[in-house]
DNA sequence: GTGGTTCAGTGGTTCAACCACTAACAGTAT
DNA sequence: ATACTGTTAGTGGTTGAACCACTGAACCAC
């Protein structure tokens, strides 16, 4: 790895490549409790510097994939019981297509939590946030950006920092795949309708309405995404 | 808030100390878009090596606190729109006591999602998982370990990997604070009752019952925790 | 057995140097 | 004036070698 013998496209940093490489190796071929080679050996195997390997290992540690013990070594953790949302995100991007089961997981959780938070937001929202909502609807951003902003406003109005962070997770994924969804004009108008209706529910402080409005649009979204997915991959839907 | 308050001193690694230091500095005194000093300057300021600083910066990057741009520098991100659950966790442990608002956030989200997942689990659980549930109830672990295991089983039975990872987040926190909760014998028997009832609901595949049983115990838990908290900090409850 | 010592192997940290990228600027050609 | 080009300073990215700190196992003395 010392010299770029070929004009390869190295868009990622070296330690990021090592993160992906080791993550795949760990998930696919190793088991909890297994010991990873020493930092020196990994560095030698990959023909990179030990410091670079260490930066990659620090990231893998934060993903919940490994545990680094001073004086002992590096051990594989059970990602089912120690993995976090960052690992989930990486699993999405490791493959070139998002696995269908992962997609289902995502939409299932989303449908559970978002309507409830919209209901809570309707009770806690203040004038300033109402105005922000109106300006989001009126501005000239793309519908994708608007929708992301609306959900962020729901989180802000809910006054729940944990939901704010949870939403960041959803949005980071949706930002990458959402453009596909909004290529369909029907989906665009459906979201615009959702934004308008939710604003009214917020203005009147009607939590039940906020809940149902949000639930309905998520169910619509779900159907559309499944339809799209099974159209692209007829054997998986 | 670790259990072993005696005997174990602060033996954090140097780069971990730097993570905490920089995280506090960023959250408390800096704003999104601000530029952090260069790696070389930070290393000089803290009188540590640049490689050590870099390992800390890699972690801060994964927390969503900073963005590192090759050739440009290190920039503060808006943690409200880029922070993740790991950052939320760090915010809990940065202070010596868990802030009340954070506690509320946690319990609010937990109460929304866990009963729904229990209902889903009741529909997807298989014989093997039923047996695992029974063995959890019968074994001799502490009630804290049992309760963590029961929730893990709910996640496993739900067949939702994302919820599995979300639960890891909750459990990592509950593992550190839960022993306080279970010091109360009433709370212990309440959880044991929950485990038995949920097992029956799972056996009969009754999703509504699984939902309400889980919701009830979470509401009980919530009240107890709030009561405990306002007893310790009378001015905040 | 018990307790202390040594030793090899591991992660943690340091140092100095160089590579690769970015922005800003000055100079040039058009 | 405008657009292009090369230079340069400052930044993060990577390297190599060395040493420090911790762990477990083997060994030894009692």
Task: Map the helices and strands.
The structure is a homodimer of 237-residue chains.
Chain A: H1 14-29, E1 35-36, H2 39-46, H3 50-63, E2 66-69, E3 73-76, H4 79-82, H5 85-94, H6 100-124, H7 127-138, H8 143-158, H9 161-181, H10 185-204, H11 207-232
Antiparallel strand pairs in A: 1-3, 2-3
Chain A binds a DNA duplex (30 and 30 nucleotides) through residues 1-2, 13-15, 38-40, 48-52, 54-55, 57, 68-74.
- By secondary-structure content and strand pairing, the structural class of chain A works out as mainly alpha
Largest Cβ-defined interface: A-B, 42 and 42 residues
Query: What is the name of the CATH topology of the largest domain in chain A?
Result: Four Helix Bundle (Hemerythrin (Met), subunit A)
Query: Which regions of chain A have little confidence, pLDDT < 50, spanning 5+ residues?
Result: 1-10
| Record field, number of beta strands of chain A | 3
Average pLDDT figure of chain A = 92
What is the CATH homologous superfamily assignment of the largest domain in chain A? GntR ligand-binding domain-like
Silhouette of chain A: elongated
Radius of gyration of chain A: 22 Å
Query: Could you state the order of secondary-structure elements of chain A as H and E?
Result: HEHHEEHHHHHHHH
Subunit arrangement of the protein: homodimer
- The CATH architecture of the largest domain in chain A can be named as Up-down Bundle
Query: Any idea how many domains of chain A?
Result: 2
Residues in helix, % of chain A: over 70%
Largest sheet of chain A: 3 strands, antiparallel
Number of helical elements of chain A: 11
Strand-residue fraction of chain A? under 5%
Going across the major beta sheet of chain A, what is the strand order?
1-3-2
What is the CATH C-level name of the largest domain in chain A?
Answer: Mainly Alpha
Kindly report how far apart the N and C termini of chain A lie.
Answer: 41 Å
């Amino acid at each position: 790895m010392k010299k770029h013998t070929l004009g390869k496209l190295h868009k990622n940093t070296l330690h990021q490549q090592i993160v992906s490489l080791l993550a795949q190796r760990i998930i696919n071929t190793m088991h909890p409790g297994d010991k990873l080679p020493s930092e020196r050996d990994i560095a030698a195997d990959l023909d990179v510097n030990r410091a670079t390997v260490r930066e990659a290992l620090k990231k893998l540690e934060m993903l919940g994939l490994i545990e680094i013990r001073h004086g002992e070594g590096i051990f594989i953790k059970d990602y089912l019981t120690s993995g976090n949302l960052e690992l989930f995100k990486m699993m999405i991007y490791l493959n070139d297509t998002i696995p269908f089961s992962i997609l289902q997981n995502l939409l299932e959780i989303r449908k559970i939590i978002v309507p409830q938070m919209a209901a809570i937001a309707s009770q806690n929202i203040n004038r300033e946030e109402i105005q922000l909502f109106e300006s989001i609807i009126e501005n000239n951003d793309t519908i994708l950006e608007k929708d992301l902003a609306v959900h962020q406003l729901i989180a802000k109005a809910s006054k729940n920092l944990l939901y704010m962070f949870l939403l960041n997770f959803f949005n980071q994924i949706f930002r990458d795949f959402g453009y596909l969804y909004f290529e369909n004009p029907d989906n665009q108008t459906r979201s615009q309708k959702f934004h308008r209706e939710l604003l009214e529910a917020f203005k009147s402080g009607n939590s039940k309405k906020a809940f149902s409005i949000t639930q309905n649009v998520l169910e619509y979204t779900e159907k559309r995404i499944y339809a799209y997915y099974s159209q692209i991959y007829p054997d998986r839907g």
